[in-house]
């Protein structure tokens, strides 16, 4: 069953009470506005990158009155899990965010860009819990303080009395609808904008299987982290990917726990989800269903090919678990019927490449392997396990052909 839900709203509000006595001739009329948190998923996960203050009702502002120092921003991230849960959440923060740019549009909305970079604390929307090993969405509270008056075009000064936090918006994640399969598997689905075109009017389906950190946890089943934890699914909705695939549907199911916990049980549920999408949408080409995933999802990608050797156009297991406790030699050899491209990094200490990807590559006929020394992107070195970053950026290549182009050529 498919349903589209509203954007994820966040709890929290903030008030700024200006010191009017210290700022003479400032308008004293009460003013209150809301603001949105604007987020983007970087290679290391989702961050709040800017704020939009909905101040249009106050009038047309003189842009020259808005400076980097007009507003200051305090950000607080708290774990959504109660202390009684026994879970310790890493990454919580209570910091001042640096405003790097400020602008106002012709509708009076004010945007404050915030300093954002990989590895910089204070912007993330997810925290990692132990011992469960899950990424959970923080409870975020942003506080805006106005430090100097704005001026309307008639030069009337304005101080805003209070700011109320509204929604977290992320255009890429928000482009995916919400759904739940007949078996109860939550998923997010992207529908291409040009879904009326393609080969014989049909389009490929890309199935993204997340890592262990993005699964659900007990009663906490939010259907969010598989899109916000990394760019694995989001990479395939970028203009570059959509052009390469001629418009692709992208589905990202969320395991209620972790794929490795019950591969035998999850495989038929994922296959049934694919069949449901094919049955409900004739524009999806059943001959071009591609499965890829990272870590837990890399294991699950292999598992899908083992269980359904003629179903998928290609699989891309990234840093997968593939040791004998996961697959027998015969099972991995059976994957040879499905075009396979493996991706891993030599410095992966979570699932070392040799006993996992190395073993799989030795047993799967004609498997392509892209092996990196480290996981380094745009000058930032990530954990060696995070080789999914390369796949999400279409970096792997073989004989001059990149991963996405290769996938787009495969069909049953």
UniProtKB/TrEMBL annotation:
List where this protein forms a coiled coil: none
* UniProt cross-references to Pfam families, sorted A to Z: Abhydrolase_2
Annotated Phospholipase/carboxylesterase/thioesterase domain residues: 265-355
* Molecular function terms from GO: hydrolase activity
Q: Where is the signal peptide?
A: 1-29
Give the InterPro entries listed for this entry: AB_hydrolase_fold, Plant_Biomass_Hydrol_Est, PLipase/COase/thioEstase, TAT_signal
The reply on keyword Signal is yes
Superkingdom of origin? Bacteria
State the UniProt keywords alphabetically. Answer: Signal
Has the keyword Signal been applied to this entry? Answer: yes
Q: What PANTHER family does the database record attribute to this sequence?
A: BLL1128 PROTEIN, UNNAMED PRODUCT-RELATED
Q: What is this protein called?
A: Phospholipase/carboxylesterase/thioesterase domain-containing protein
Tell me what organism the protein belongs to. Tessaracoccus lapidicaptus
């Amino acid at each position: 069953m498919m349903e589209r839900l509203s954007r994820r709203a966040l709890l929290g509000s903030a008030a700024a009470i200006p010191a009017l006595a210290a700022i003479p001739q400032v308008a004293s009329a009460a003013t209150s506005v809301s603001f949105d948190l604007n987020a983007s998923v970087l290679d290391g996960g989702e961050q709040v990158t800017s704020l939009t203050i909905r101040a249009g009702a106050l009038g047309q502002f003189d842009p020259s009155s808005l400076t980097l120092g007009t507003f200051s921003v305090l950000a607080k991230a708290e774990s959504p899990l109660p202390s009684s849960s026994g879970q310790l959440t890493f990454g919580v923060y209570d910091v001042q965010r640096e405003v790097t740019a400020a602008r106002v549009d012709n509708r009076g909305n004010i945007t404050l860009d915030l300093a954002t970079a990989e590895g910089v604390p204070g912007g993330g929307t997810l925290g990692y819990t132990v011992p469960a090993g899950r990424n959970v969405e923080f409870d975020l509270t942003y506080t805006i303080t106005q430090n100097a008056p704005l001026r309307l075009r008639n030069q009337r000064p304005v101080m805003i009395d209070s700011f109320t936090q509204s929604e977290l918006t992320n255009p890429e994640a928000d482009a995916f609808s919400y759904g739940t399969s007949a078996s109860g598997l939550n998923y997010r689905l992207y529908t291409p904008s040009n879904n009326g075109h393609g080969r014989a009017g049909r389009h490929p389906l890309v199935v993204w299987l997340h890592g262990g950190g993005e699964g659900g946890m007990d009663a906490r089943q939010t259907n969010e982290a598989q899109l916000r934890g990394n760019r694995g699914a989001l990479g395939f909705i970028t203009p570059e990917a959509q052009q390469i695939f001629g418009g692709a549907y992208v589905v990202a199911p969320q395991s209620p726990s972790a794929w490795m916990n019950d591969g035998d049980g999850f495989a038929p549920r994922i296959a049934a989800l694919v069949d449901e999408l094919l049955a409900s949408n004739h524009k999806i080409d059943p001959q071009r269903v591609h499965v890829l995933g990272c870590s837990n999802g890399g294991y699950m990608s292999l598992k899908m090919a083992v269980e359904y050797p003629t179903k998928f156009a290609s699989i891309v297991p990234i840093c997968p678990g593939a040791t004998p406790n996961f697959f027998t030699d015969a099972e991995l050899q059976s994957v040879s019927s499905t075009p396979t491209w493996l991706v891993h990094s030599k410095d992966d200490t979570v699932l070392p490449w040799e006993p996992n990807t190395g073993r799989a590559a030795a047993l799967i006929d004609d498997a392509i392997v892209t092996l990196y020394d480290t996981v380094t992107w745009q000058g930032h070195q990530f954990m060696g396990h995070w080789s999914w970053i390369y796949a999400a950026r279409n970096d792997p290549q073989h004989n001059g052909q990149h991963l996405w182009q290769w996938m787009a050529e495969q069909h049953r």
